[in-house]
Amino acid sequence: MNPFYATHAAIPSEKFMRKKLKNTVSHDRKNQCALIKKQSKALHTLQESAGKLHVFNTQLTQLIDAIPDTILLKDREGRKLITNKLTKRLFKEHDLDWYGKTTITSALTHQEIRAHARKLLGSELGLALEKRQLRLYYQIQVDSARQIRGAEALLRWEHPRYGLITSDQFIPIAEQSDLILPIGAWVLQTACEQLKLWQSDPLKKDLPLAVNISPYQFSQPEFVDQLSQMLEKAGINATRLKLELTESLMLHDIANTIKKMEALKLLGIQFSMDNFGRGFSSLSHLKALPINQLKIDRFLIRDITTDSCDAMIIKAIIDMTHKLEIDIIAEGVETEQQFTCLKQLGCVAYQGYLFGKPMPLDELNLRDINGGHLSYFARVAN
Asked: How far apart are CA 212 and CA 245, in angstroms?
């Protein structure tokens, strides 16, 4: 056979190629439609069965698990309830048809789900004060001899469905609205009332109480006057109230911060710099800030027994506070090894699960690690 004819005979015509391509595309579309119909039929069957809820929860939970715990609840039941509510709300608001869809990741972003989660919790948080669902829990602070030298008031939300929610899971939501202002005022007022009760007890009258202050709350022009009125109304010794401010707050607008701190110190209020060592530290500003205490962040405490760099940093912080005549306390102490190491480095005050978890007053039994009562006082209760 002539090579020319043999070569060209093997090459399909353009018309033939277009027809073949059209048939191929048509075949692919048919297969795709068949697959979608098959999936839709299967999912329609699931709709009428108990499996539907499982499918919804599985897919949404995979997305929700990627959202920080400060937004969503940690406990499984709480997340399940949120998942169920998000399911109905998300598909309705995005006008999505469930049938034929095997995943919603392409239609909904993590940011959208996060926004809906915030909206869901935020709407209920607005009623938490009115319904008296907020509580103060107390965690003891001890010295090197395990003697109780103070306590920190920690906010909790007793949600009727989700149970006990820690502040790090709902305060970020409150801080993005004006909700943080009435919540913060309630915390301070409740703390002052508790100090008033302790003030009449010889065993508790010298016990200082630390309270966390939101940056937004502290930035309000009327904050100093409001707190002054609370102290006067409660009739307490203001030196027993310690305000914990994050170092990022103190260093954001340092001139205005110092002005407010000095005004409050004239009333007797003490200040602790919280989360020290988390990355915002500016040692040159410490001399100017009228603080009474530094709280070493738990991030540095966590690996202190295995990371020599963390130990060196903590040692440098402790030595610096001694020279500046500032008290020091380590938070997040959870093991005996951490406690021993901190003592060797010169730390003199501690807070953490090793000594006691945050508890409501009526459940707070102040005991040492060996089970004996601490000598400072036997029980904190009103």
From this structure: 6
pTM check: above 0.90: no
Dihedral of CA atoms 41, 43, 48, 54 in degrees, nearest 10, equals 160
What's the pLDDT tens digit per position in 67-105? 444 444 444 544 555 555 555 555 554 444 443 343 444
Helix (H) or strand (E) holding 228: helix 223-234
The answer to whether residue 344 scores a pLDDT higher than 70 is yes
| Residues forming a β-bridge with 245 | 273
Same domain assignment for residues 63 and 200: no
In this structure, the answer to whether residues 142 and 80 fall within a common structural domain is: no
pLDDT tens digits along 113-144: 556 666 667 778 888 999 999 999 999 999 99
Is the domain of 94 the same as that of 235? no
DSSP letter string, 272-339? EEEEETSS---HHHHTTS--SEEEE-HHHHHTTTT-HHHHHHHHHHHHHHHHHT-EEEE----SHHHH
The reply to whether 110 and 176 lie within a common domain is no
Cα dihedral 246, 328, 380, 362 in deg (nearest 10): 40
Has residue 236 been placed in a domain? yes
Its domain, for residue 162, covers 138-363
Q: What is the Cα–Cα distance from 235 to 192, expressed in whole angstroms?
A: 9
Residue 104 lies in a domain: yes
Is 168 in contact with 73 (CB distance < 8 Å)? no
Distance CA 212, CA 215 (A): 10
Q: pLDDT of 145-162, one tens digit each?
A: 999 999 999 999 998 877
**What total number of domains does the chain contain?**
2
For the domain that residue 205 is a member of, what is the CATH number? Answer: 3.20.20.450
Q: What is the mean pLDDT of the chain?
A: 75
Q: Are 111 and 244 in a shared domain? A: no
